[in-house]
TrEMBL record:
Protein name according to UniProt: Stage 0 sporulation protein A homolog
Domain spans labelled OmpR/PhoB-type: 126-226
Keywords: DNA-binding, Phosphoprotein, Transcription, Transcription regulation
DNA-binding region range list: 126-226
Boundaries of every Response regulatory domain copy: 3-116
Pfam families: Response_reg, Trans_reg_C
CDD domains: REC_OmpR, trans_reg_C
Gene Ontology MF terms: DNA binding
Keyword check for Transcription regulation: yes
Function (record text): May play the central regulatory role in sporulation. It may be an element of the effector pathway responsible for the activation of sporulation genes in response to nutritional stress. Spo0A may act in concert with spo0H (a sigma factor) to control the expression of some genes that are critical to the sporulation process.
Amino acid sequence: MNKLLLIEDDEALALGIEFTLKDEGYEVFRGATIAEGKSLLEKEEFDLILLDINLPDGNGYDLCKYIRRTSEVPIIFLTALDDEVNIVLGLEIGGDDYITKPFRVRELLSRIKALIRRSNKGQTYGNKLRSGDLEINTLETTVKKRGQELILTAQEYKLLLIFMSNPNILMKRDEILGRLIEGDEVFFDENTLSVYIKRIREKIEDNPREPQYIITQRGLGYKWNVEVVRI
């Protein structure tokens, strides 16, 4: 049974979401503040987190950053802020998806299922790959740079694996998105892909402004530009 954490201060909405998720077979833990969210995170491990942005003791972005220090658990933002700047900010700091209120419960369920599937798929590979200062251990689903482990979300990990499995090959944006989604319902667009690549660069590059690993071919796509060795 997948274990979900819901952080939402609108009690009526939270109760409705909790009832639906439990009816679908999920185990749901619910909190209404950042403090309650941190307390639950200390006690339990979750398969996915639903996180409201506006909370009584702060905002969901702060809790997302707190989670990303130690975990790559998928995070879906629940937001009434139907604004591209806020959406991009949520993705840049480590969110995996967002849904704007009011939303249909079935759409939320589809997104939850898709994210959990992608998260699980990211754990099915079985080799080690080394490229420059980076090493992916696909049995343990870990990424290290100069021996220091990097914290990546499931989507960042899978995207990095896609690139390192196809070194020195120019990949178009729609091809990358297709491999990332792999038959799941499409919730990514090109802007989201750009955000993911920006986040990965900030973690793997010595100077993200002058990337050495993931190179942009303007108008064409992206290429992994460093030799990859299978160990």
